[in-house]
Amino acid sequence: MVLNILKDKPTKLFIVIAAFFVANALIAECIGGKIFSLEKLLGFEPLNLTLFGQTGLSFSLTCGVLLWPLEFVMTDIVNEYYGPKAVKRISYIAVALISYAFIMFYASIHIPYADWWPASKTAEGVPDMQVAFTGIFGQGMWIIFGSLVAFLVSQMVDVFVFHRIKKVTGEKKVWLRATGSTLVSQLIDSFIVLTIAFKFGSNWTWAQVIAVGCVNYMYKFTVAILLTPLIYFAESRIERYIGKETAMQMKKAAMGQGSV
Description:
- The chain is mainly alpha-helical.
- It has one domain (about 1-110, about 125-250): Arp2/3 complex 21 kDa subunit ARPC3, CATH 1.10.1760.
- The protein contains 11 helices and 4 strands; from the N terminus they run ααβαβββαααααααα.
- The strands form 2 sheets. It has a two-stranded antiparallel ribbon with strand order 1-4. Strands 2-3 form a two-stranded antiparallel ribbon.
- A hairpin with a 2-residue loop joins strand 2 (about 50) and strand 3 (about 55).
- The radius of gyration is 21 Å and the shape is globular.
């Protein structure tokens, strides 16, 4: 029976998507401690924007934003073919495993290191590995909590908006429900994580939260638009893999209109 289930193409597809979804989310959290300059990446100087009285703003972003847009693309794909319950299930699994990972990071930071490990006493050219290890994996608890809450809430919002739009448009206008739900959920995500991590965790002013949130959302808005063709590409590949008839049955089931 198990072998028959694993041979089922929609099941195999869901396992692959779910595995990549969780891995991508975990990697995004792990690399989120590094801040990069989007302007320098694209080859020009920081913009030095002024918003809500906050000067010197630029697109200094966490490396996690490089991967998070893919989470919302996968969310829309799962939403389309497997329905909101499947999205919620993989979202809960991702949050649980990310939480587990950070508990392990915290434990490993505080485990006593071996005497020969280059920590506290460093040779020339060799960094203090304990400090480096703590700096990379020891993200602040407010940031971790904020990012997890923002992720979970934005996922639920994405599911809700996606299906609201689909009930109106039917099978047409994939771009509207996919990109529209992402734009709304990313707006909420941007401000939740900043409010929890920096307003409550670091005593930022509301002006700082709103200004930085707007800059971050400009990036997310642009990326969401640019990734729209990826939704169509993914759907075409999925329908080629499972067949158009099966794909249509799955879409109907995802909307509560039948079963696969």
